[in-house]
Design a protein that fits this description.
The structure holds 3 protein chains of 3 kinds. Chain B is mainly alpha-helical. Chain B has 17 helices and 2 strands. Helix content of chain B is 72%, strand content 1%. By secondary structure, chain C is mostly helical. The chains are: A alpha+beta, B mainly alpha, C mainly alpha. Chains in contact: A-B, A-C, B-C. At the B-C interface, helix 4, helix 5, helix 9, helix 10 and helix 11 of B face helix 1, helix 2, helix 4, helix 5 and helix 6 of C.
């Protein structure tokens, strides 16, 4: 009977083990599959590429480029894994490093640049390695030309920390405004509004239309738009030159520029011009409202320029993000994400990763990516290529983002902030704005509270990560 | 200050034993005193006496004393069990564990342990260990993947509470006093008298005073404190809403459906199937119905009734109502299921007698059916409450994500927002401990009440 | 509800006309079904059709299905969820049976302590310690694995107590007869106890399966890799198919995700209802 008892326990442990091995299979077969099919030349090196997109177009682009690279370099196998969000990918990377199974390269957004630089593994060493350092001055790797020197200045300036590129720029955008010209024209407005005052004038006219839309303008309640406005007005978001001449230890959420912007926003909302979808960071809801003709203007990321061109059933025109006409324009900043390379890979693997990242943003691919989405072409070579093809004459909306970034001065304010716990601080900003819009609170009072919370959050971050 | 606590433990320990033991003796009092001191000393030693450090506040002292008292009490309860064993008051393991009274297997001592070991190991690793770690985390400032963490003593707790230690003690004590007072009154008043009615009202008021006391204890924010009061209010509103709507609706439908009628089985299946639907899917379905752009609700209200319904995510009442409706719909099937079972046990002869006495349908319902269902009602109250505390997370995540301005962010949603999305593990863990205390409270209440009322009988 | 108390007829309650009840029940059933029926309608439509509030089935069922099943690999998520639910249900049932066996048919030292150890976990829902568990399980290196989805839920006080209660109410002669035959505890379990306990096992299995299938919070934390995600969480990525909010595929996916637990529930409904004791999953 003891044997039977043991047998039963064996069965149980097998059930438990099966759970574990069941998914082990999915991990390793994919990788090993690549290895076995490699043609037997040499051992195939697997490099995991974690991508924080899950939609078909963007994830598909990454998967297709990986497949092309794998065909071109059969000794490598780039394996794309999809994550629902930047945060998901980053959290997973930190955990994976701790447990000793890190990906090779990972797609990670601009706001957490400081956090990525500060991230350490269980051994206390930084997780990521500077790509400039890894490239070490080479002009090509495994036959793939290095494109880092050709990266457009806006992205270069944003991502250069201590004089070096830590990560490889990929999807880079800025905020632009999309205008339903049919509604604007009906209201007697011929040009997209350029300043805050212009927007108000236009909205007054539009809301006066007999069969006009239910709202005038919308944009997602996302801190990125606030940061853009700070850049436009030349206001710093944090000390130490926005965290670019040293570690930022203080944030400024009560600056004149901040209050001016939020007062304008709240004013639009109070007069019924601004439509709030009720959700924070609601990209989908706002874009739907614009496409459904419920608002005449949409401030959005340039990343969806192509999408709006294809899906708008009206004359859709892109323009610069409206600015504060009372102060001098300084500059808009970028948004988007870069590809970070994990430290601790052997030379062959690292070279493969570097070669792939440069291949990924070579002029052809960068141009395709721009055309597919509306993210700015990331290198000057790609811009030249697109100009040569006459793309911008064909789709003028696609040029607006690049033009806007080119118009920016290179100051710490227009570069945007490098901040610890920026994701959390962004959350504090969005919550405060929602509070102001929904609960009709006083801007200055509420932002004073947000400022206090954000500074507490930053100082706690510095306690854990600072020097 | 630590000394005061230890001295108090040394004195009160023997007092506890004196009240509970059958054989008081000097040696037992001595042991009790020592155990109480040791129990009280555990947490200050583990936490480096941080609650009494120079910069600590009155609220910190309060927490430190509270933990000392809890440690001492746990030690004394365990000691009491030992004393009882020594006195021959063995626990009735047979009744408790369901052990058969005669027979049973006589095999190696390890056989039952082997049978139990998978269960025990899983519970130890995946319930006990994280429970302990939750408490540890709650005293730290720490982030996922951070190179270091900082001990912050009780500050993760004190920042969600009001900062006046006297009010912090007084409000809960007042509520407890109100409950005991009302109980006393109910016992004294003769059934049916005017005084009894007043007493019943007072009992309800005393119950409500618990909610009020908790409301007063949580910080409204400002002055460096975290505004936890709104989270508490959201949790109370949404939980009570779900439980009330789900249970009243469940009972009403069950009362309609339990009768013998042609096609009854089909009707019942059509009524209870949402049991199989997930909270996430419930969120998705109601997300669609209430969607301001494409949802049928806004459209119908507008075209049929000419009511321009605002976006529900911008209005606290609408948003909370939508969450409550979606969750109550999902849990309705479960409640119907149990009430249908419960209605089978209603004594039929009493009903028939009542019919003969000329009692109205409503009187029959309130006087006979409701009391007969009270065990089921109580059971459902607890399970519905658990659902409203935890499972509602997915529904909220699909429908409002806490909007507007955090008005649908309930305790569990806030834990994840703070602990995972903001990566602030310490604060998230502290909020988890608060929820933990709430759950322990509800469960103990369930154990105390259900012992006499709900039978756990199988079929 | 035929199985519940088949002997008890409630005719005495039922005086007067029947049609109001038919009417009431039909109306109630319709109201309860409305969200799902509406979702089924939306699932056949594309955005323009939805925006025009068309009340007849749309033209997009096929493309919605392709978006869900092929483009987003919802099939993969379904399979992950099937595996998870199966492992948890099977594992928990076996472990609970063993625990029930040990509690009822064995005497051993400190049994009441063990019992208490299990009992206390009724007060410890996973959700209140989810942050610590997330950190701990991640520390095991289990993120994005099936083990992380299954292992923490393999044991439960509810299951153990359910079988303890059930076995304790069985006649003693069963054990005596089998002991005379010299059957081992495992043989006793498999040959005697399990065959007469199918109703209880089915009740527990339905509860477990539905509960596990519907889990959301834990998978959303521990599984980040989209390819290994379970359906309830995968639904979230379906709000945006091609760059904008798309309702049809989301509704279709919600319906698909509800089919397996609904089937399990309906198939085992009779056994479930006759077998369930008042026990619930926490």
């Amino acid at each position: 009977m003891r044997y039977r008892l043991l047998a039963l326990l064996v069965v149980i442990s097998m059930i438990i083990a099966a759970c574990g091995s069941g998914d082990e299979d999915t991990t390793t077969t994919a990788a090993a599959g690549g290895g076995d099919d490699g043609g037997g030349t040499a051992e195939v090196i697997d490099i995991d590429f974690w991508v924080a997109f899950s939609d078909e177009a963007r994830l598909g682009f990454a998967e297709d480029r990986a497949a092309e690279f794998n065909t071109k370099h059969p000794e490598y196998n780039i394996e794309v894994t999809s994550f629902a969000s930047y945060n998901d990918a980053f959290d997973a990377a930190v955990l994976a490093v701790d447990s000793g199974e890190p990906p090779g390269i990972i797609h990670f957004f601009e706001a957490a640049t400081r956090q990525a630089l500060d991230a350490v593994g269980a051994d206390g060493n930084p997780i990521f390695k500077s790509v400039t350092e890894a490239i070490a001055g080479r002009s090509e790797i495994l036959g793939e030309p290095v494109v880092l020197d050709s990266v457009v200045s806006a992205a270069r300036d944003y991502y250069t920390v201590d004089g070096s590129f830590y990560s490889m720029p990929w999807n880079t955008s800025t905020t632009v405004m999309f205008n339903n010209m049919e509604i604007l024209n009906a209201a007697g407005i011929t040009e997209p509004p350029a300043t805050w005052a212009d927007v108000e004038t236009a909205c007054e006219a539009i809301m006066g239309l007999a069969d006009g839309p239910s709202g005038c303008i919308t944009w997602p309640n996302h801190s990125w738009f606030v940061e853009q406005s700070m850049g436009q007005q030349g206001e710093l978001l944090a000390n130490a030159d926005n965290g670019r001449s040293g570690r930022a230890t203080e944030v400024f959420l009560e600056s004149d520029g901040m209050l001016a912007y939020l007062d304008w926003w709240k004013g639009l909302s109070d007069s019924g011009y601004y439509t709030y979808t009720g959700l924070q960071r609601d990209w989908d809801g706002t874009s739907n409202a614009y496409l459904a003709g419920e608002v005449a203007m949409l401030i959005y990321s340039s990343s969806d320029t192509t999408f709006f061109d294809e899906n708008a059933e009206f004359d859709n025109q892109a323009s610069f993000m409206p600015r504060n006409g009372d102060v001098d324009y300084v500059g808009n900043l970028i948004g988007g994400a870069t590809i970070w390379m994990l430290d601790g890979m052997d030379t062959a693997t690292e070279d493969g990763a570097l070669a792939f990242m440069n291949f990924f943003s070579n002029p052809d691919n960068a141009a395709d990516w721009h055309q597919l989405t509306g993210y700015v072409p990331i290198t000057e070579d790609a811009v030249d290529l697109l100009e040569g093809e006459g793309w911008y004459d064909e789709s003028p909306n696609s040029k607006v983002a690049s033009d806007q970034l080119a118009a920016a001065q290179n100051t710490p304010a227009s570069l945007g902030a490098l901040l610890g716990n920026f994701v959390g601080i962004r959350d504090i900003i969005t919550i405060a704005i929602e509070d102001i819009l929904v609960n009709d609170l006083d801007v200055a009072t509420r932002m004073a509270q947000a400022n206090e919370e954000a500074n507490k959050s930053l100082s706690e971050y510095e306690q854990l990560y600072g020097n | 200050m630590l000394i005061i606590g230890l001295v108090a433990a040394a004195i009160l320990g023997p007092f506890y034993t004196w009240r509970n033991t059958d054989n008081p003796s000097a040696s037992r009092f001595g042991i009790a005193s020592a155990v109480a001191v040791a129990g009280a000393a555990v947490t200050p030693i583990a936490m480096g006496q941080c609650g009494f450090a120079a910069e600590s506040t009155g609220v910190d002292h309060l927490f430190a004393y509270g933990l000392m008292a809890a440690g001492a009490l746990l030690g004394l309860v365990a000691l009491q069990a030992l004393f009882d064993r020594a006195d021959g008051k063995k626990r009735d393991t047979v009744a408790m564990t369901g052990e058969i009274r005669t027979g049973g297997y006589r095999m190696g001592w390890w056989v039952p342990w082997l049978l139990l070991s998978p269960t025990l190991i899983i519970l130890l690793v995946f319930l006990y260990r994280p429970a302990v770690e939750t408490f540890t985390l709650s005293t730290q400032l720490t982030r996922l993947g951070a190179p270091r963490s900082v001990d912050v003593c009780f500050s993760n707790f004190t920042e969600v509470l009001i900062d006046d230690p006297f009010k912090l003690v007084a409000y809960p004590l007042l509520a407890i006093a109100a409950i005991y007072g009302a109980r006393f009154w109910v016992k004294r008043a003769a059934p049916g008298s005017l005084s009894r009615r007043g007493a019943d009202l007072a009992a309800v008021g005393a119950m409500l005073s618990v909610f009020v006391a908790l409301y007063a204890v949580f910080s409204p924010g400002g002055g460096g404190q975290v505004a936890y009061r709104p989270v508490y209010v959201n949790t109370v509103i949404i939980s009570i809403g779900i439980v009330a709507l789900g249970m009243v609706g469940g009972l009403a439908v069950a009362y309609l459906a339990f009768r013998e009628i042609r096609g009854g089985t089909i009707y019942r299946t059509l009524l209870i199937w949402p049991y199989a639907i997930s909270p996430a899917v419930a969120g998705v379905l109601f997300f669609m119905i209430f969607d301001p752009t494409a949802g049928v609700f806004t459209h119908v209200m507008d075209t049929w009734f000419g009511i321009d319904v605002p976006n529900y995510r911008e209005h606290a009442v609408l948003a909370q109502g939508a969450i409550i409706l979606a969750s109550a719909w999902k849990i309705l099937g479960y409640n119907i299921l149990f009430y249908l079972a419960g209605l089978q046990t209603v004594p039929i002869d009493q009903i028939e007698a009542a019919v003969i006495d000329g009692a109205s349908a409503w009187q029959r319902f309130t006087k006979i059916v409701l009391p007969a269902l009270s065990p089921i009602t109580f059971f459902l109250l607890v399970t519905n409450l658990t659902y409203a505390f935890f499972e509602v997370y997915a529904t909220i995540d699909f429908m409002t994500k806490g909007a507007p301005a955090g008005k649908t962010s309930v305790a569990i949603y806030e834990i994840i927002r703070v602990g995972v999305n903001n990566g602030d593990l310490g604060r998230g863990a502290a909020q988890s401990v608060l929820l933990f205390i709430a759950v322990i409270g509800v469960t103990l209440w369930q154990f105390r009440t259900s012992g006499s009322r709900v039978s756990y009988g199988g079929a | 509800m035929a199985g519940l108390a088949p002997g008890v007829q409630r005719r005495g309650w039922f005086r007067g006309r029947k049609w109001p009840f038919h009417l009431g029940l039909t109306a109630t059933a319709t109201i309860i079904a409305f969200p799902l029926l509406y979702a089924a309608l939306i699932a056949t439509q594309n955005n323009p059709e939805i925006f025009s509030f068309r009340t007849s089935p749309g033209t997009a069922l096929r493309s919605n299905f392709e978006a869900v099943w092929v483009k987003r690999n919802f099939a993969g998520a379904m399979w992950n969820t099937v595996q998870m639910s199966f492992y948890v249900t099977a594992g928990k049932t076996v472990l609970s049976l063993l625990a029930g066996l040990a509690f009822v048919y064995f005497k051993f030292r400190a049994k009441w302590l063990v019992f208490f150890f299990v009992l206390v976990t009724l007060m410890m829902p996973t959700e209140v310690m989810i942050l610590a568990m997330f950190r701990m399980v991640s520390g095991f290196g289990w993120q994005d694995t099936m083990t992380a989805l299954v292992a923490p839920f393999l044991a439960s006080a509810t299951g153990a107590f359910l079988f303890r209660q059930h076995f304790a109410n069985l006649p003693l002669e069963l054990l005596e007869a089998s002991q005379i035959d010299g059957a081992t505890p495992i043989k006793f379990l498999t040959r005697v106890l399990i065959p007469i306990s199918w109703n209880v096992i089915a009740a527990l299995a339905v509860i477990q399966f539905v509960y596990t299938w519907n889990m959301f919070l834990w998978p959303s934390l521990i599984i980040r890799d989209e390819a290994r995600q379970v359906v309830q969480v995968s639904l979230q990525t379906l709000t945006n198919i091609d760059g904008a909010l798309t309702y049809g595929p989301l509704m279709l996916a919600a319906i698909i995700a509800s089919i397996p637990p609904a089937i399990v529930f309906l198939l085992l409904q009779k056994r479930f209802m006759s077998g369930f004791a008042i026990g619930q999953e926490k």
